[in-house]
Amino acid sequence: MKVQGVPMRSIWVEPDGWSVGVIDQTRLPHAFVKVKLTTADEAGHAIRSMLVRGAPLIGATAAYGVCLAMREDASDGALEKALTMLRATRPTAVNLHWALDGMRQVLAPLKPETRVASAYRHAAALCDEDVAINRAIGEHALKLFQEAWDRKGRKGRLNVLTHCNAGWLATVDWGTALAPMYMAHDAGLPLHVWVDETRPRNQGAVLTAWELGQHGVPHTVIADNVGGHLMQHGDVDLCIVGTDRTTAKGDVANKIGTYLKALAAKDNGVPFYVALPSPTIDWTLHDGVKEIPIEQREGTELSDVTGRLPSGDIATVRITPPGSPAANYAFDVTPARLVTALITERGVCPATEEGMLSLFPERRTERSTGT
Ligand SMILES: CSC[C@H]1O[C@H](OP(=O)(O)O)[C@H](O)[C@@H]1O
User: Are residues 123 and 13 part of one domain?
Assistant: First the structure.
């Protein structure tokens, strides 16, 4: 997408042909800072610290982390060490494991001296595939936006609610849940986006609002607990969110608070869509609530808030009493029964096993043979 009118992706290989450029998302929206990753450890830290975040971008960063590791030492031991380190960075987004499994599958059979070039080729292909997937998701979701606008009699504006950031900053480009927002806005559909602030890391208030503002998409930042009230008063025409891991039966892990939004949507008859790139499907899982690992992060992410002072300086302040512990669950699981439909790069389907297999029939044979 564009930043100050300049097209760019969220991750790129620098002109030196090997170091990896990313945007420091912990500095947004007050500063736009690019960071150069030069080692696998720096890539691992970028993921753990959420300098880069979002399931697809985590996968892409990990893939380039393997590239950086191979530059230093392309031995079998170094490959396994890098894969293990990167795999341990964050537990919930399955794209991380999908990307690393792919890098291992490509590199392990090769002679060490050929691994670096192959690693960069595969990482680049993974990024290009992500962009194509997200563009396709956007096009499929755009049709749902247009249907919602028609149902509304094309009056007023189309109010869409989203949670967290599933924009181009969470992917290599376009985003998943935000891709149709850009397309709808560019097509002239009078879209307005309710942006959940998304405590405690505030990916909505900080990242989604910044992205939409950069593209000129009308939006309003709201507290996480406002969405239900807006739905009760007919001010939300549809919800669309991203996902970090979706099971073979359509249970959706996403940023903490998504489940509560889905409950409110169900109670008010508001369509609740999940933008789902296929690398985010974990075909091995069936019961998301029981089986999807939920990341728990430092309590200080909840007890402390960082922002810009009137002086323009950036500061961090504590908002909780010194003695109060804070529990920081980073994701929750929305059961498939609360999801109106899954929007994948191959089209839209019900959040059911049969619905997903109808779009990914090759998985049917795997499941029947247990491969
Ligand atoms: C398109 S995946 C975006 C997904 O990732 C976010 O989590 P985090 O910011 O912690 O990486 C959130 O769950 C988004 O929906």
Answer: yes
Token code pair at residue 104: 């291992």
Confirm whether 24 is a catalytic residue.
Answer: no
Q: For the chain, how many structural domains are there in total? A: 2
Do 40 and 181 lie in one domain? The reply is no
User: Which residue minimizes the CA distance to atom 7 of ligand 1?
Assistant: 54
Ligand 1 within 6 A of CB of 54: yes
Range of the domain at 121: 2-129
173 and 259 both lie in a single domain: yes
Residue 189's contacts (CB-CB under 8 Å, 6 or more residues apart) are 145, 146, 149, 158
Residue by residue, DSSP assigns 53-88 as -SHHHHHHHHHHHHHHHHHH--SHHHHHHHHHHHHT
| Residue 203 is labelled as binding a ligand | yes
Q: Cα 343 from chain centroid?
A: 14
Domain edge (last residue) among 79, 108, 129:
129
Q: Give this prediction's pTM.
A: 0.97
Name the residue with the closest Cα to ligand 1, atom 15: 242
In this structure, are 297 and 193 located in the same domain? yes
Whether 97 lines ligand 1, by a CB cut-off of 6 Å, is no
Q: Check pocket membership of 256 for ligand 1, CB cut-off 6 A.
A: no
312 is in an annotated binding site: no
| Active-site choice (130, 196, 224, 244) | 244
> Quick check: ipTM above 0.95?
yes
Tell the residue nearest (CA) to atom 1 of ligand 1.
166
State the closest ligand 1 atom to the C-alpha of 50, by its place in the atom list counted from 1.
11
Can you give the C-alpha Rg of the chain in angstroms? 20
Residues 60 and 95 in one domain: yes
Per-residue pLDDT of the chain (371 residues; tens, 9 = 90+): 888 888 899 999 999 999 999 999 999 999 999 999 999 999 999 999 999 999 999 999 999 999 999 999 999 999 999 999 999 999 999 999 999 999 999 999 999 999 999 999 999 999 999 999 999 999 999 999 999 999 999 999 999 999 999 999 999 999 999 999 999 999 999 999 999 999 999 999 999 999 999 999 999 999 999 999 999 999 999 999 999 999 999 999 999 999 999 999 999 999 999 999 999 999 999 999 999 999 999 999 999 999 999 999 999 999 999 999 999 999 999 999 999 999 999 999 999 999 999 999 999 976 566 54
Residue 337 is given by DSSP the state: G
